[in-house]
Amino acid sequence: MSASVGRSQPARSQPTPYPLKRLLHYARPHRRQIWLASLYSVLNQIFDLAPPYLIGIAVDTVVQQENSWIAKLGILNTTGQLAFLSLATLVIWGGESLFQYAYDTRWRNLAQTVQHELRLDAYSHLQELEMGFFEEQSSGQLLSILNDDINQLERFLDSGANELLQFTTTVLTVSISFVSLAPGVAWMAMLPIPFILAGSILFQKRLAPRYADVREQASLVNSRLANNLAGIATIKSYTAEAYERDRVSLESETYRTSNRRAIRLSAAFVPLIRFVILIGFTATLFFGGLAAAAGTLSAGTYSFMVFIIQRLLWPFTRLGNTMDQYQRAMASINRVMNLLDMPIAIRTGDRDLNPSQVSGDVQFEQVTFAYKDRAPALHCLSLQIPAGKPSVLSAQQALAKALSSNSCSGSMKSTAAIFCSTASTFESCAYKICGAARAG
């Protein structure tokens, strides 16, 4: 009987959920902190949008005086209206500063917590995987996931999530204000938005595979550097410094080329969006001015619209950088989550045995072992190792000895049976014994 032993299929081979959904599912224990941080981000942006409204109200107060908007609240004196407006300004600016501090501390602490927990969970899961997995993975790639990718996620939670929330708050708040105050001109100001969003989605779809490739190339560079540093003595012994430098140069150049492809596309986003924004601003300035001159739009409302249109459209120029950071983070999340989803083929036994109390022998019965899609390296091996007696394993190939040793330690899975005389299967018995021996 034979079997092929190899690395389990990664989770990415199955239909992959959205990476943001995978992150939110993982961060469920921190839902309260996420909600609070999101609330503070939204409130801060609402307060931040208040100055253009205050400018419009101030112009309306000076021009309309007793007929101004504040006068409708019962404050008829112009001095009293301006005093009320000044007090409101102090409150709004104070609230903006307060909520900025609140969301900043919440998001940063959340980023550090998720980074810590995700790295620890990923490393703990990595330790439980069988040796066959490590033989098909480079240490540099695994280090890239545990370090670079998790750090990329931390940077997104630190600032990117807040930027996305505040951008959405700005668009919704200003759009509702435009439609309420000047529906005849509002459509002109918001006309570019669908085109900007469509362009953003298009750029996002085209950027996603490019950044996934960037993360993969970064892991290959890390792998090359890690392997070379680990084998620096060998490199020096064979005077292969120039050869290895060329290999590092090749990997680094490939990484740079991959990054260049992503940069070329992401850098084109802002210049293109700026021209679309110009159309909305010019339309508001011109047609809004005509409406104000005709008396169908108050001077205060027109002033507000001229100021707020920039707050509505200009954040779209930063949307490219935000989406750029988002795509990098999503590519990293997928790589980390794929590692966490990797199934454990050989699980550690649940019995703790003291090595000094185990007095059985080890017996191999018709053991056949093969790597995935390869011919068997061990075929029908039968072997008995007596208890308490030294044994020497001799073979023509070191591979056979290594495979037998790994099977004995529970690091690899083989067919047939491996027993110890404590009446337990070896995988649930001796594997824990080896762990206890190491701990002792």
Write up this protein.
The protein contains 15 helices and 5 strands. The protein is an alpha+beta fold and 440 residues long. The chain folds into 2 domains: 4-340, ABC transporter type 1, transmembrane domain (ABC transporter transmembrane region fold); 355-439, no CATH class. Strands 1, 2, 3, 4 and 5 form a 5-stranded mixed β-sheet that branches. Helix 6 packs antiparallel against helix 12 (299-313), helix 7 (183-190) runs antiparallel to helix 11 (269-293) and helix 8 crosses helix 13 (315-340). It starts with a strand and ends with a helix.
Write the topology of this structure.
Layout lengths: L3 E2 L13 H8 L4 H18 L1 H15 L13 H51 L2 H5 L3 H43 L1 H8 L1 H39 L1 H6 L3 H27 L1 H25 L5 H15 L1 H26 L21 E10 L4 E10 L12 H12 L7 E4 L3 E2 H14 L1
Parallel strand pairs: 1-2
Antiparallel strand pairs: 2-3, 2-4, 4-5
Helix pairs in contact: 1-13, 2-4, 2-6, 3-4, 3-12, 4-6, 4-13, 6-7, 6-8, 6-12, 6-13, 7-11, 8-10, 8-11, 8-13, 11-12, 11-13
